[in-house]
């Protein structure tokens, strides 16, 4: 059998390098021909290099991963890389599609490698029907505004080397941590690989309020709001934590 080849299409440098390193360790015979940081460049490379396998992130600048898979039309085995919530993961499982969750877990990558090694004996699966059934929620008919996406109910978060599914309702507040976000719950703190700004756009605006440039609070966990000489603070139920409210967000609490 010829040396198997692959292409990685991922816009974030750290997940891209981790995938490369993981594949090199678990499948040293696999030759990664190239990688791309956006969908348009990735599609051009895939059509030019004709790899056996394409690892593609769903959310990409330009052409998204699902649209890219449609364009390839069965030319390669596809593995979607996703940081989507549990609803999307469930859709992948029902469609028997290979997928990897970010942050990458070695055990999950090992399973995918083993499946791919067997699937290379057959032509790539035709994904057209599955892709038509599961379209990204942002797509809408021409001339029509996209329907609003449902707020996130589950969050994929890491704690050390372990991946967890955390209910958004259980999060007392979110705290910005550079490009990532810390989700604080009664069970501890979890790291989300999303900026606070990107996360806020996916949360229920009636339940989660931004009170500081680096803090978003879950109103269901707010015990009271206090005005002090140093400014306004939010106190949480069953916690000694005091969350500062920036001047620009204090007007939200005046009617309360």
Automatic annotation (TrEMBL):
<dbReference type="Pfam" id="PF00072">
    <property type="entry name" value="Response_reg"/>
</dbReference>
<keyword id="KW-0597">Phosphoprotein</keyword>
<feature type="domain" description="Response regulatory">
    <location>
        <begin position="5"/>
        <end position="117"/>
    </location>
</feature>
<dbReference type="InterPro" id="IPR011006">
    <property type="entry name" value="CheY-like_superfamily"/>
</dbReference>
<feature type="domain" description="HTH LytTR-type">
    <location>
        <begin position="155"/>
        <end position="256"/>
    </location>
</feature>
<keyword id="KW-0238">DNA-binding</keyword>
<dbReference type="InterPro" id="IPR039420">
    <property type="entry name" value="WalR-like"/>
</dbReference>
<protein>
    <submittedName>
        <fullName>LytR/AlgR family response regulator transcription factor</fullName>
    </submittedName>
</protein>
<feature type="modified residue" description="4-aspartylphosphate">
    <location>
        <position position="57"/>
    </location>
</feature>
<dbReference type="InterPro" id="IPR001789">
    <property type="entry name" value="Sig_transdc_resp-reg_receiver"/>
</dbReference>
<dbReference type="Pfam" id="PF04397">
    <property type="entry name" value="LytTR"/>
</dbReference>
<dbReference type="InterPro" id="IPR007492">
    <property type="entry name" value="LytTR_DNA-bd_dom"/>
</dbReference>
